[in-house]
Amino acid sequence: MRPLTVAQALAAIVVATRLARGRDRHPPLGRTPTRNEDGADRTDSAVVPVRGEGGAVRSVSVDAAARDGGRVGWAVSVVVPARDEEGRIRPCLAAALADPRVSEVIVVDDESSDGTARIAAEMGARVVPGTPPPYGWVGKQWALHQGIRAATGDIVITLDADARARPGLFGAMASALADCDLLSVGPRFTCGGTAEQALHASFLATLVYRFGPIGASASPPPHRVMANGQCMAFRRGAMLEADGFARVRRHMADDVALARTLAGSGWEVRFLDAGDLLEVDMHDSTAGVWREWGRSLSLRDVTDPVRQAGDLAVIWLTAALPVLRLATGRPTRLDLVLLAVRWSLTGALRGSYTRPGIGLLLSPLLDPVAAVRLTQASLRPVRTWRGRTYPAATWRDSVSRTLSPQNPVRDRDVQNPVRDPDVQDPGRRDVEKRDAEVRGPGVRGAGVQGAGARDSEVQGAGAQAVGGRDSKVRDSGVQSAGVQDSGVQGAGVQGAGVQGAGVQGAGVQGAGVQGAGVQGAGVQGAGVQGAEVWDSGGTGSQNAGA
Fold it and tell me: How many C-alpha atoms does 211 have within 13 Å on its Cβ side?
């Protein structure tokens, strides 16, 4: 049997294992029929999954969850980070402002150059003028960081400007927090045409092949947790204490970085289907899907190189290669099986689109294109977004920023003190500007003054020594982690695509894709031995093995 066939068979087993997780899933957030006074059916009462006695999960209405001690009665703040969103923010705000379970809607205007702030204020939202992000912060995380400090609700739900909530979403998410600490939900996507839907669905299929279906009951390990930053919910006090957005301030894939960081800190993170309650119109064209979603699709800055290579190999071998062989008229029997599985997935993905059409059916034919985009984003990541360019953040940050008493390192981020936004609101006292304490596994107890810190104690693997005096540096989370002078073990199979990258994290050893022009997927000469090295935004590396 040829090496390529063996590699493809192993990759197929990996995909089958991941898809099988969908057999046991949490119930989706949805709407349940209720009766009006005239006896007519209506469907604006949301249902949420609640864990009962013995660990069994059942779906109950939001009202029933509230009676049973759910969190629907808690004050809910909706925070919308917005930068130049005047063209699509109206439907987002209209839905949030109309929901009776929402106590306030906050729009953090991230230095927009258009009428975003004006529109938000006219519609009745509370506008928080965002300040420029400090060095090392990505704009969205900085906007959310300001927004949750300005919020007054017990529960914060973050919402992207292109998201359109339906009645019941916010109450359902608040109630679902009875069973988890961080919740994100999957929407139904709106696509403008056949080509846009085909490319979007092909991109979406790569996520399913790499991480399995949404809502699986079995919790994955922290380094494989997924989330959707378009709509997330959490308890405000817990997030402030964890300082979550500061810990993932460098990442372009901020949602997944936040979920993995907090999961590694012991949070219960959940990702549920909410297609009945949320729609998202992400892009305005096929080119927009390619450019904007494609840049973050690889999750490069939250995935170590070995697993990155493994994920790429799986996509090339099980999705792209069968289509390429079919196009040349030489598919193998395994190729035909894989094509059948892929086309059956289009049926499962119908619920992910508001208007599923022929584009969804044609999406498998674009899998080689999706594989190319995934590879491109892995090898040449883009760090520019909405007119801003950000410094690189990779999994290596958790190694390079590891501290030891013998080798303190200056952290330029700490030299930019984090200040609460200056919130002017007649109904609420002004937020006092202070030098912030940056807490959590990043930097604890470091009173930041000016460009340095005096007499500060820096703890955590994500922290680096402050450029000040008399600072104590403790390593609180790194145990024998790092990249050692040993190559990645497990020879790559030539002709399969990735050469020299041992694919151990995905369950495939020695699968590569040479024909796709991927060599080592950025893993040349850098082996990981005895430690799983990945960037969790300041939580440090884990000694779990790679």
Answer: 23
- Average pLDDT in the chain: 74
Please choose, from the candidates 452, 458, 465, 416, the residue with its C-alpha nearest in 3D space to the C-alpha of residue 439.
Answer: 458
Identify the helix (H) or strand (E) that includes residue 108: strand 104-109
Output the CA–CA distances (angstroms, integers) from residue 492 to 206, 311, 324, in the order listed. 22, 14, 21
Question: Which residues touch 38 (CB under 8 Å, ≥6 apart)?
Answer: none
Each residue's pLDDT tens digit, 55-113: 444 455 545 544 444 444 589 999 999 999 999 999 999 999 999 999 999 999 999 99
Rg (CA), the chain: 24
> 135-151: buried (b, 16+ CB within 10 Å) or exposed (e) per residue?
ebbbbbbbbbbbbbbbb
Q: Which H helix or E strand runs over 31? A: strand 30-35
Both structure tokens of 307: 């697993």
Taking 70 as the pLDDT cut, the residues of the chain under it are: 1, 31-73, 385-387, 392-546
Can you tell me the distance from the alpha carbon of 546 to that of 536, in angstroms, rounded to the nearest whole number? 15
Tokens of 215: 């809502």
In 10 A of CB 5, how many CB atoms? 14
Between the two ends of the chain, the Cα-to-Cα distance in Å is: 28
Identify which of 160, 373, 394 has the alpha carbon closest to the alpha carbon of residue 283: 160
Sign of CA dihedral 321, 327, 333, 338: positive
Residue 537 near residue 249, CB atoms below 8 Å:
yes
Angle at 273 (CA atoms; ends 268, 278), nearest 5 degrees? 115
What are 350's two structure tokens? 């119908």
Q: CA 8, CA 298: separation in Å to the nearest integer? A: 21
pLDDT in tens, 396-448: 443 233 222 222 322 333 333 333 333 333 333 333 333 333 333 333 333 33
The DSSP element (H or E) to which 79 belongs, if any, is strand 76-82
Q: What is the 3-state secondary structure (H, E, C) of 293-356?
A: HHHHCCCHHHCCHHHHHHHHHHHHHHHHHHHHHHHHCCCCHHHHHHHHHHHHHHHHHHHHECCC
Tokens 């106590």 correspond to 103
Residues paired with 183 in a beta bridge: 233, 270
